[in-house]
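Revision sheet: structure tokens.
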Amino acid sequence: MAGPGGGRRVVSREQVVRGACRFFLQHGTVDMDRLAVGLAISRATLYRVVRGRDGLLADVLWLLGERALARARRERRRGGVDGVLEVTRRFVDQLRQAGPFREFLRGEPETAARVLFNAAGGVHRRAVLAQRDILREVRGPAEAWPDLDQLAYLYVRIVESVLYAELFGGVAVDPDVAEQAARAVLRPAG
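Predicted:
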């Protein structure tokens, strides 16, 4: 699509991701053709900017998830293990209430699994890094966690088992049992 003066319209990756976030919140998915029309760019331009739908979905899910996680972190009132669990509870509650996200999981389970868990999508890796930061924020003298990277990885996997149970075989995980497991992983060594 031509911009003013007949030239090609220039659009940044950030603009595309923001537009895709708006589309996702309205539709629970991202349709590349309709997104291109909404952004007033050609489909070819859209793919030049983002390279593919999975990568764009990963960026959309991470941006929306990051906002929810930031809100949960701001609302945290405790430190230590209880603070970590409080942030997680708040975050999980927000995702469970997010209709577009739930719609995406139900409607595109294979795509969701690829985007959320494969290294190429980067959502899981970014979640682990964010969790590591949360562990650093709340760590007090009682928490002698030796390897925050591994701890964050294990913790995120427990949280994912609750959030994405339907993708892992349809067996719901009792949140109380998951919290006990998460608490055990966070128990300081000693």
